[in-house]
């Protein structure tokens, strides 16, 4: 068996590092996967708190599916529609699917705005949607501004195959990491000075990892800025239905609507685009439903053609189309989603608060908290943060995500996901945190020694990593409940 | 050393002629600079000034970018596979910005892709969408023969579904309906159970002479992303693949859109029954080299699309040798391997050829999918099968942009694991395709239209050159237009497939019912009459 590995035969992309998987960020995944927590079978295992998955409302979905067997087309009631669905590969998507998604997006925004089904374009999950938008708006070498901290996946999804650059706009805790206009303007000017051609600004609202939303005025100012400078505004709104508390969510769609209804017509809508997905709001990442919604006809047309590379399975379109057309179900689902997230968030932050751990105050959305552990760092540096993180993984046995992986300019912040587990697991996690803080409090000064003792170097070879990551037992990203089922 | 700008420094020998005037004033200080004395300021100022003016000139004369919102008339169809331009919504009627209207800049590749596609392949598909034939509801509508779809065996699948319902959705657990295993994140390159099931299916389809290893497989949402992902792994921007013509029009999109890789046609002729020859390949390779293009691989479809012929063992060996010699990749698109109807030749997968041989397997890759052989294009299931670890690793990472939906994977695991059903399906499918082929090609034959010899695929490659007035692409397109608008039959003209000989048309016949065939022949016959009588 001749299997000569000839690297010169491969493209630069295949050989290169653009996939970002060699980052130490993945140590946590490895630890989780080699030792996953399970109530009975492995109560001392690592609890997965680094995966932003929403599993709080699966019961609602299961109930609906039971009551609507035709939606699945794999049932006696549904099979009559099978042929048409199986053969359907039109990249416009099933009309029922587009209509249902448009309606759902409107409902999520309290019906304050409506969405045009003809502007709904499919993509391979939010991952595919982001990449498609980057392909449409920017050429290789051009850049998008992104406020920090931001989702680590952007480094790969927006840059890898597109050749587009990301220019971070640093935000800090002094004002809760909210994007300030002066920082945005400065970053834009600086990019221009460095001859970087900025094509747009990418906002994640509600924010990952902060779990906060932008207020209407800030959003208006940002839109005015991008409008004035003739650059695109891409709003990633994939967490829009996870807003569980006040203040009320304001979507860019509402700003657009406001501009038009008032008759001012100042905004150039060709610059405004929304990225959406059902992965977070509904907890359906496995279904790979990504949406590009643009107010720019040319972008819609271009994205639609590119959607051939990531069409949503017609079977899934059919199921989602039926499910989201059921107004009663949607109402109930959204209500339950918010209520359960609020409850879980409250329980979690409450538990953390009781041991003196603060989380970002204004967070009222998302599937995670932005935890402040700055005072537990032996020094305010990324190395100290990484050291603390390794302790959390190896001693406390929780997989959380360190702020540095989100390009946070201040060390000591961690994103902790709470919606991908049941109440019991959450209690266990809180218990472990309590124990850790108690221990750490006593050993505050000598904490240095403590850290040094438990040799935390997790060294591993990049290649073994990759095989491991892509193995069926891959940590990326599997939820603990999948394990629990077996 | 400073110099006042108005004075001319005295250059040492060689002295320039003083009579030369302004030109010399320029040269002299430059010469002075070069010789290290005098004219430093002037010598540096003047070139800088020239350069500045050059930049200014270029800036002013740069062609303006095209405006973002191109206004094309909206197409009537809302569900066409081609670009359907949207009607403007009223909210966008007034677009005055604060200052003057500056066109919005998209990426240049975005603009190129967004342009309406005027290839007859796409235009035809659009037209059918707007006026689709239906025996009862729209008997005067356009009959679709331009999309290679197979609806002949849906009854088998439907029956299987009825008998295997819950399992098919939930993956065999039977009892409790659980969304958990379906909705949560799964490995981006497909569940291992699906890979195992696909490997089994592929070996049944390709003939039992070859087995496929699930760990050499990467799954993604369709053959469309499969070929794009493979291209990203094998070639850099600006490189090229050799591809025999005529070829599937979709490759122009799949390969060229975003990867920046070129396709170099290797023309095949009717005298060879459009079979690929190494001579032609070699010629094309050398020509590409001369043009400075780096060829990274050969891409071919086997069974071929649109002709439907299959490559012999000998040719496959020759192709492998050629690839080895030139140190390039082989990409074999075998998506129609299960749609065979020929009895004369046996399909041989490239996997079978290299099994057990001392070839450098690291350059061989296979594209597969369930859109043709299992008639499930809507489900989006594609495969990259490779012998190269690095390609597999890279492709796996790229599947995050195009993963197969989890419930669809579960359904397919169930279906593909039912060996008895699959065997029955493959065999029945072949029989029914054969039957339609006989009917259809027989019908064309009676109209005096011959088809190329073919053994596979869901279509036939018909020679209608006798009907065209002008033996050229123009003549061919005129005939195509007549067939579409007068005959109300959509076929794919050879020019859309880059065929070098005009007059050939691809006609897909597996989405027809048997009773529709006489109607199709009648309509084509009518157009044929028109052409013969000189209209």
UniProtKB/TrEMBL annotation, chain A:
Family: Belongs to the class-I pyridoxal-phosphate-dependent aminotransferase family.
Record flagged with keyword Lyase: yes
Protein name: 1-aminocyclopropane-1-carboxylate synthase
Transit peptide recorded as keyword: no
GO molecular function, one term: transaminase activity
Alphabetized InterPro entries for the sequence: Aminotransferase_I/II_large, Ethylene_sulfur-biosynth, NHTrfase_class1_PyrdxlP-BS, PyrdxlP-dep_Trfase, PyrdxlP-dep_Trfase_major, PyrdxlP-dep_Trfase_small
GO biological process: ethylene biosynthetic process; fruit ripening
UniProtKB/TrEMBL annotation, chain B:
CDD domains: AAT_like (cd00609)
Record-level Gene Ontology MF annotations: 1-aminocyclopropane-1-carboxylate synthase activity; aromatic-amino-acid transaminase activity; L-aspartate:2-oxoglutarate aminotransferase activity; pyridoxal phosphate binding
Residue ranges, annotated region (Disordered): 1-20, 63-90
E.C. code: 4.4.1.14
InterPro entries named in the record: Aminotransferase_I/II_large, Ethylene_sulfur-biosynth, NHTrfase_class1_PyrdxlP-BS, PyrdxlP-dep_Trfase, PyrdxlP-dep_Trfase_major, PyrdxlP-dep_Trfase_small
Catalytic activity entry: S-adenosyl-L-methionine = 1-aminocyclopropane-1-carboxylate + S-methyl-5'-thioadenosine + H(+)
Pathway noted in the entry: Alkene biosynthesis; ethylene biosynthesis via S-adenosyl-L-methionine; ethylene from S-adenosyl-L-methionine: step 1/2
Record keyword S-adenosyl-L-methionine present: yes
GO biological process: ethylene biosynthetic process; fruit ripening
UniProt keyword annotations, A-Z: Ethylene biosynthesis, Fruit ripening, Pyridoxal phosphate, S-adenosyl-L-methionine
PROSITE patterns: AA_TRANSFER_CLASS_1
SUPFAM superfamilies with a match to the protein in the record: PLP-dependent transferases (SSF53383)
EC main group: lyase
Domain Aminotransferase class I/classII large span(s) in chain numbering: 143-524
Family label: Belongs to the class-I pyridoxal-phosphate-dependent aminotransferase family.
Record note on quaternary structure: Homodimer.
Protein name, entry field: 1-aminocyclopropane-1-carboxylate synthase
């Amino acid at each position: 068996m001749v299997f000569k590995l000839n690297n010169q035969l491969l493209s630069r992309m295949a050989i290169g590092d653009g996939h970002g998987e060699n980052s130490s960020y993945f140590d946590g995944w490895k630890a989780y996967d080699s030792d996953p927590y399970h109530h009975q079978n492995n109560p001392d295992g690592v609890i997965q708190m680094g995966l932003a998955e929403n599993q709080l409302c699966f019961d609602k979905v299961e109930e609906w599916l039971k009551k609507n067997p035709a939606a699945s087309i794999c049932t006696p009631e549904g099979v009559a529609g099978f042929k048409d669905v199986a053969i359907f590969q039109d990249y416009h998507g099933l009309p029922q699917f587009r209509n249902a998604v448009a309606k759902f997006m409107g409902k999520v925004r309290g019906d304050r705005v409506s969405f045009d089904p003809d502007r709904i374009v499919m993509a391979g999950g939010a991952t595919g949607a982001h990449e498609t938008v980057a392909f449409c708006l920017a050429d290789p070498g051009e850049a998008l501004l992104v406020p920090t901290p931001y989702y680590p996946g952007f480094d790969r999804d927006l840059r890898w195959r597109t050749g587009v650059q990301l220019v971070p706009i640093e935000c800090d805790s002094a004002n809760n990491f909210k994007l300030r206009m002066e920082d945005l303007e400065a970053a834009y000017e600086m990019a221009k000075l460095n001859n970087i051609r900025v094509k747009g600004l990418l906002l994640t609202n509600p924010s990952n990892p902060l779990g906060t939303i932008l207020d209407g005025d800030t959003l208006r100012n940002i839109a005015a800025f991008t409008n004035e400078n003739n650059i695109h505004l891409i709003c990633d709104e994939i967490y829009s239905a996870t807003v569980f508390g006040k203040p009320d969510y304001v979507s860019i769609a509402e700003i657009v609507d406001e501009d038009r209804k008032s008759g001012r017509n100042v905004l150039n809508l060709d610059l405004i685009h929304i990225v959406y997905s059902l992965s977070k709001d509904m907890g359906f990442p496995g279904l790979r439903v990504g949406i590009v919604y643009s107010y720019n006809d040319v972008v819609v047309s271009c994205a639609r053609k590119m959607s051939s590379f990531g069409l949503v399975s017609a079977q899934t379109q059919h199921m989602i189309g039926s499910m989201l057309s059921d107004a009663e179900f949607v109402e109930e689902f959204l209500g339950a989603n918010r209520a359960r997230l609020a409850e879980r968030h409250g329980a979690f932050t409450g538990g953390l608060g009781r041991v003196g751990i603060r989380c970002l105050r204004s967070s009222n959305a998302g599937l995670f908290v932005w935890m402040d552990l700055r005072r537990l760092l032996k020094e305010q540096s990324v190395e100290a943060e990484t050291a603390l993180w390794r302790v959390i993984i190896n001693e406390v046995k929780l997989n959380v995500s360190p702020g540095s992986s989100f390009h946070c300019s201040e060390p000591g912040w961690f994103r902790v996901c709470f919606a991908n587990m049941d109440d019991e697991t959450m209690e266990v996690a809180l218990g472990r945190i309590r124990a850790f803080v108690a221990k750490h409090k006593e050993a505050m000064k000598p904490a240095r020694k403590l850290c040094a003792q438990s040799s935390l170097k997790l060294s591993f070879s990049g290649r073994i990593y990759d095989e491991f990551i892509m193995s069926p037992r891959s940590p990326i990203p599997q939820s603990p409940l999948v394990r629990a089922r077996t | 050393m400073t110099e006042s700008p108005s004075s001319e420094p005295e250059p040492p020998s060689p002295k320039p002629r003083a009579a030369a005037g302004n030109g010399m004033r320029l040269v002299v200080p430059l010469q002075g600079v070069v010789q290290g004395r005098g004219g430093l300021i002037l010598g540096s100022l003047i070139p800088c000034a020239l350069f500045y003016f050059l930049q200014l000139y270029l800036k002013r004369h740069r062609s303006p970018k095209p405006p973002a919102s191109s206004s094309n008339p909206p197409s009537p169809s809302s569900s066409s596979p081609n670009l359907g331009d949207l009607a403007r919504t009223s909210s966008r009627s007034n677009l005055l910005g604060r200052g003057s209207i500056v066109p919005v800049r998209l990426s240049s590749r975005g603009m190129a892709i967004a342009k309406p596609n005027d290839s007859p392949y796409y235009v035809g598909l659009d037209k059918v969408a707007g006026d689709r034939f239906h025996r009862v509801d729209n008997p005067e509508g356009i009959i679709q023969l331009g999309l290679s779809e197979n609806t002949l065996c849906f009854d088998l699948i439907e029956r299987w579904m009825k008998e295997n319902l819950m399992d098919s959705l939930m993956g065999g657990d039977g009892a409790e309906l659980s969304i958990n295993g379906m909705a949560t994140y799964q490995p981006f390159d497909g569940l291992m159970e699906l890979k195992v099931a696909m490997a089994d299916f592929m070996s049944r389809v390709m003939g039992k002479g070859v087995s496929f290893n699930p760990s050499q497989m990467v799954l993604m949402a369709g053959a469309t992303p499969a070929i794009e992902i493979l291209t990203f792994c094998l070639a850099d921007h600006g490189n090229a693949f050799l591809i025999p013509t005529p070829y599937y029009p979709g490759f122009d999109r799949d390969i060229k859109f975003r990867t920046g890789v070129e396709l170099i046609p290797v023309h095949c002729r009717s005298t060879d029954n459009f079979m690929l020859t190494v001579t032609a390949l070699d010629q094309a390779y050398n020509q590409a080299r001369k043009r400075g293009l780096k060829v990274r691989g050969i891409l071919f479809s086997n069974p071929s699309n649109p002709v439907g012929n299959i490559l012999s063992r000998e040719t496959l060996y020759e192709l492998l040798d050629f690839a080895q010699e030139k140190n390039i990749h082989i990409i074999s698109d075998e998506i129609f391997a299960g749609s065979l109807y020929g009895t004369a030749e046996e399909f041989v997968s490239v996997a079978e050829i290299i099994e057990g041989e001392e070839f450098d397997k690291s350059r061989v890759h296979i594209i597969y999918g369930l859109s043709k052989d299992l008639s499930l294009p809507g489900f989006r299931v594609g495969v990259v099968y490779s012998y190269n670890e690095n390609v597999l690793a890279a492709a796996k990472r790229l599947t995050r942009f195009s993963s197969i939906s989890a419930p669809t994977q579960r359904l397919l695991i169930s279906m593909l694991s039912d060996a008895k059903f699959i065997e029955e399906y493959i065999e029945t499918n072949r029989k029914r395709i054969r039957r339609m082929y006989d009917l259809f090609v027989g019908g064309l034959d009676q109209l005096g239209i011959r088809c190329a010899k073919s053994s596979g695929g869901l279509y036939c490659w018909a020679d209608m050159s006798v009907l065209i007035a002008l033996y050229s692409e123009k003549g061919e397109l005129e005939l195509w237009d007549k067939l579409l608008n007068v005959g109300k039959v959509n076929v794919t003209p050879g020019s859309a497939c880059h065929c070098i000989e005009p007059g050939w048309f691809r006609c897909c016949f597996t989405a027809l019912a048997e009773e529709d065939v006489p109607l199709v022949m009648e309509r084509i016959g009518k157009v044929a009459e028109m052409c013969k009588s000189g209209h």
